[in-house]
Amino acid sequence: MDAAVTSAPNHAPATPPDVATAPADATSGGGDPRRTPRRAGQRDRARRENLAGYLFMSPWIAGFLLLTAGPMVASLYFAFTDYNLFDAPRWIGFDNFTEMFGDPRWRTSVEVTSWYVVIGTPLKLAAALGVALLLNQSRRGQGFYRAAFYAPSLVGASVSIAIVWRALFSDGAAIDRGQQFLGLEAGGWIGDPDRIIYSLVALTVWQFGAPMVIFLAGLKQVPRELYEAAQVDGAGPWRRFWSITLPMISPVLFFNVLLETIHSFQIFGSAYIIGSQGNACGPADGTLVYTCYLYIQGFENSRMGLASAMAWMLLLAVALVTAFLFWSQKRWVHYEEGAR
């Protein structure tokens, strides 16, 4: 019996016919050939969808390349050249930057712009937050009040409003007569180099509608249960504001601070119009903000190379301030878990 078992031929296990005769997939090395046309169809459909997306994006891409990226690269080159818009640019290296740092009017424009940013931006945000807190309360006619407070932001940056604002703060105008009625020192703000900047700040604060709407949206997201629990614990209005409202809307506050700070560095139209009463950018350079002096150098003095160097210094300053704000947000901005 044992001899019979040991002498039996050793046959390999039979291979199933369906496995032995299945042809190999030429593309995947052994996969199901029926999946290949399906994958090819999916790739074709994805390619057509991508092509359609790029076609819809092509106007924006062309505008970005022709109107943003292209001029930025050109201005970077002009910043190191002597270029007057009429003759070919001549390479001069860092001479534009050296002249810019030694220019007293350039330093004045930096001081005026810094003063405007430091004073105007917090006042504007404070007004926007205060009105947003009032509009967040349930009362009749909320829609009308919201539209009324937002309306100045729609027309505040226009040339006509800047002209009206200059007329209001001129000698003998409405603001001047109001000061006389209150027993204050008379005299228009427009002709005073020390006070004209405050008329510009007042115009900026008047345009608080856009950050107000953003604050209002953030206030709507604060849970009512937090205020109810704080009231039960005996917290007053100011305590609830500092301990609940501000921490909960801190991401919205950070967004508004960042956006309004960048906008303040870029102010030009209202400063140029309000200060252009016989002298561009205010008496004794009272409203000589940075962009106003950049405009004077580039288009009135035809020194486009120097203006390009000034523009890149402004970009660097805004980038540094933005980086500082992003660094500081770790200390005072509170995000919900997983929302960052």
UniProtKB/TrEMBL annotation:
Protein name: Sugar ABC transporter permease
Membrane topology: Multi-pass membrane protein
Subcellular location: Cell membrane
Domain ABC transmembrane type-1, first and last residues per copy: 110-325
Pfam families: BPD_transp_1
Biased composition (Low complexity): 17-27
Alphabetical UniProt keywords: Cell membrane, Membrane, Transmembrane, Transmembrane helix, Transport
Family stated for the protein in its record: Belongs to the binding-protein-dependent transport system permease family.
PROSITE patterns per the UniProt record, alphabetical: ABC_TM1 (PS50928)
TM region positions: 51-80, 115-135, 147-168, 196-219, 240-259, 309-327
Region called Disordered, residue ranges: 1-45
